[in-house]
Amino acid sequence: MSPKPLIAPLIHYKGRGATTHLPGRFEIDQRDSFDDGWSPDDIEAPPLHTEVFSEQAKSILTYNTSPDLPFNVSLNPYRGCEHGCIYCFARPTHSYLGLSPGLDFESRLYAKVNAPQLLERELAKPSYQPQPIALGINTDAYQPIERKLCITRRVLEVLHTCAHPVGLITKSSLIERDLDLLAPMAERQQATVTISMTTLDATLARILEPRAAAPERRLRTVQRLAAAGIPVAVSIAPVIPFITEPELERVLAACASAGATSANYVVLRLPWEVAPLFRQWLATHFPDRAQRVMNRVQEMRDGKDYRAEFGQRMQGEGLWANLLQQRFANAVRRLGLKRCQYEPLDSSSFMRPVLKPIRQGATAQLTLFDNE
Q1: What NCBIfam families has UniProt attached to this entry (predicted)?
Q2: Residue 31: exposed, middle, or buried by beta-carbon count in 10 A (0-12, 13-18, 19+)?
Q3: Which residues on adjacent β-strands are paired with residue 53?
Q4: Do 205 and 215 form a contact (C-beta atoms < 8 A)?
Q5: What's the CA gap between 262 and 271, in Å, rounded?
Q6: Any idea of the CA torsion for 315, 320, 325, 326, to the nearest 10 degrees?
């Protein structure tokens, strides 16, 4: 009997979260790599450049009725996210584009260049009823390409002009650029911001969410937003057993000291292709505790990597999930934090915009090269 081929060692691409171009679940062909003995042990991954494609979206607002989400309407200016967070629940959406939820998700991005015009058209409809829009829920609205493209900035300008409430969630310090819009909106109770935090360990953050702002930088963003009068919540997400979970109380304390007024948390979610991608990441960076982490994840998910039921998917079930809930409750009570994500926002001052024609933008591929 011939020996079974060895699985090829996973490669860590500098500045990237995923380790492979894992095929999406709709692909006909599925491939497994293996070590044929010809590759040197010290192989170095080539640089993986970011490609950005402009997209003319057909619609821009997404509606949901999920009982465990604090918003009903969301807007996402981008598909894919360069932050490269290995745990991102939005990774499977790249499968619908025929792309990998792995490295493609963080290196082949789509910018909805007509988002501000579509939003303006939507708000101008006589039938539109204003309610808070959650901005940047699937993928971060302030990911690095926003610095050049400014789509999120232009969306905020529309909302600011129309006195329309908005809630943002980000792990990027780039949001400070838009304080001139957010501060007056917050003064009118029309804006709130949630900063996503996972760890205070910069070394861990560098491999967990490689192109997001460093933890210390995010804390300074909390300070600056709070100093500008903007209500700031923190989302401790995800809580990963034996990886970020031991830091829960310290992360909450640091955020409270920086000026956050409320907090929530989400236990690690592994839908669809996120599960094998996360397992690959564990095998690459934490082989000594990989099985232990997954055992605890499955303990909270009735023996599975993930369960999608409302009320269960965010915090899990079982003894460990209950203990985590108690730890969180005790910490926020001790720190004087509220247990909510969004402050109440005011829709009463909404001013319907004058409808303008949508200007057709270029559809050519845009390419950003980063040499990391």
Answers
A1: rSAM_PA0069
A2: exposed
A3: 110, 365
A4: yes
A5: 27
A6: 180
Q: What is the pLDDT of residues 324-359, one digit of tens each?
A: 999 999 999 999 999 975 678 999 999 999 875 555
Structure tokens at 114: 């007509």
Pairing of strands 61-63, 50-55: unpaired
Can you read off the two tokens belonging to residue 268? 């690690």
- Which residues, at least 6 apart from 214, have a Cβ–Cβ distance to it below 8 Å? 202, 205, 206
Task: State the CB neighbour count (10 A cutoff) for residue 70.
Answer: 14
Highest average pLDDT, of 65-74, 268-277, 305-314, comes from 268-277
DSSP state of 228: T
DSSP letter for 307, please. -
Residue-by-residue DSSP string for 125-171: STT----PEEESSSS-TTSTTHHHH-HHHHHHHHHHHTT--EEEEES
CA gap 98, 191 in Å, rounded = 36
CA gap 356, 161 in Å, rounded: 14
Phi and psi at 47, nearest 5°, equal -60, 140
Strands 73-75 and 61-63, sheet pairing: antiparallel
Give the domain ranges of the chain: 50-346
3-class DSSP assignment, residue 245: helix
Q: pLDDT per residue over 13-60, tens digit each?
A: 889 999 999 998 887 665 555 444 545 544 556 789 999 999 999 999
Phi, psi of 197, rounded to the nearest 5 degrees: -125, 140
Q: The pTM is what?
A: 0.90
The answer to whether the CB of 186 falls within 8 A of the CB of 148 is no
Q: Which of 275, 270, 273 is nearest to 24 (CA)?
A: 273
Whether the CB-CB separation of 166 and 132 falls below 8 Å is answered with yes
Q: Which of the 8 DSSP states describes residue 311?
A: T
Q: How far apart are CA 276 and CA 57, in angstroms?
A: 30
* Pairing relationship of beta strands 78-79 and 108-112 according to DSSP bridges: antiparallel
Which CATH fold would you assign to the domain 50-346? pyruvate-formate lyase- activating enzyme (3.80.30)
Rg of the chain over all Cα atoms, to the nearest angstrom: 21
Q: Which two tokens mark 18?
A: 């995923």
Cα–Cα separations (whole angstroms), residue 2 to 6, 135, 267: 12, 55, 43
